[in-house]
Amino acid sequence: MDTGNTAFVLLSAALVMLMTPGLAFFYGGMVRVKSVLNMLMMSFICLAVVTVLWVLYGFSMTFSTDAFGGVVGNLDWYGMRDIGVAELWDGYTIPVTVFAAFQLMFAIITPALISGAVADRTRFTAWALFVAFWVTLVYFPVAHWVWAADGWLFEKGVIDFAGGTAVHINAGIAALALVLVVGKRVGFKRDPMRPHNLPLVMIGAGLLWFGWFGFNAGSWLAADGVTGRALINTQIATAAAMLGWLFLEKIRDGHLTTLGAASGAVAGLVAITPACGALSPLGSIALGLVAGAVCAWAVGLKYRLGYDDSLDVVGVHLVGGIIGSLAPGLLATGHVQSDAKGLFYGGGFDQLGKQLIGVGAVLGYSFVVTYILGTVIHKTIGFRVSEDDEVAGIDRVEHAETGYDFAALGGSTRPTAGIGTATGAGAAAPADTKVDA
């Protein structure tokens, strides 16, 4: 075993773990003030639920010997028994335990990504139950397809360096299925539902960007030239995507917003994830510019098509994941991660066809299973809070807490009408008060 590679992957695992609290802040700042704690908790509960399931059977289902023709692993490693500290597999120089810890962080953040789509209206217990079933029925099998040595997409030659299909397309299409089940927020298209704390959004985006270096570069499981290419491509595409988003925003709306900068950066991070080891730096610029502009356009589809994706998970993660997953079929140089070449580098349509198969398979499987799972939960225990509770404030109803103590600012101890608290939530705010609850 190589101690340098082992230390690098351990550090990368810690960086990826930090992305889940970063996501919580990113999403938490984007919701209304009455939902911020619930939004934070929807990410944090994934750390608990998925960790336990990963130990019990998730790691085994994902990476043990294939059981059903490339679909899912067997349960030989249930409870992580017998994995010890041995070397991973031939050619890899890190312990199995380190690899298991690194991959656990991917399993945690993937369902957390979905949470933004159903913000402001989801029962917390129903969400926790959904996470448990979703990672079992969707994430573990799809991750096996993509990353296990005998997974069927891996054997087919689909390039997914760090999770364009298994993480972002998987979460993005699941988010679409779930919002169709759960339905729209009260006041969708009618009431302003602006972010309540943009500095928190920017902090979250910064933590995501920082952690993403472990997410992408760490996925090579070694510290070498490929790792360096993955890291620099991650930085390049993210920067380009921010510019692409802001350019479209300026042309379309006449403004350059902090929310657009943060969202553009995340769109670039999403898009480069599957392609960071296959593209050149110039290819990464092109990918980032396209992903930033297209995702900025795609977030408006929910108003045209009528689905209520609260925090634009579909527009950023699904659309960005598809763009990034197809990128190796067009822009793979054949010189870094593998010898596969994209269409623009003389490789013809071969790799692009493989990428299309991977994208289509994950889209179809994740949507169908998520829709069925969401429907079962919704029809049994109920997936969303009542309309009155949603209007009053989901933080008070679900957690008996509020994110901000407005009484501490002085004056009346009675919560101010219109700030999304249970008391006075139905009253109109004063004319000179501009508060989006």
SS class: mainly alpha
Count of domain modules: 1
Radius of gyration: 22 Å
CATH class: Mainly Alpha
For the sheet with most strands, the description reads: none
Can you tell me the CATH architecture?
A: Orthogonal Bundle
Number of strands: 0
Shape designation: globular
- List the uncertain runs: 412-437
CATH topology group: Ammonium transporter fold
Superfamily at the CATH H level? Answer: Ammonium transporter AmtB like domains
Alpha-carbon distance between the two ends: 54 Å
Helix content: 55-70%
Look at the structure and give the mean pLDDT.
91
Strand content: under 5%
* SS field, number of helical segments: 15
What is the string of SSEs from the N terminus onward? HHHHHHHHHHHHHHH
Layout: helices, strands, pairs:
Blueprint: H1 3-30, H2 36-63, H3 96-115, H4 124-147, H5 152-156, H6 164-182, H7 198-217, H8 225-253, H9 258-272, H10 281-298, H11 301-305, H12 313-331, H13 350-380, H14 387-392, H15 394-399
Helix pairs in contact: 1-2, 1-3, 1-7, 2-3, 2-4, 3-4, 3-6, 4-6, 4-13, 6-12, 6-13, 7-8, 7-9, 8-9, 8-10, 9-10, 9-12, 10-12, 12-13
Keywords: Ammonia transport, Cell membrane, Membrane, Transmembrane, Transmembrane helix, Transport
Function: Involved in the uptake of ammonium/ammonia (NH(4)(+)/NH(3)).
Subcellular location: Cell membrane
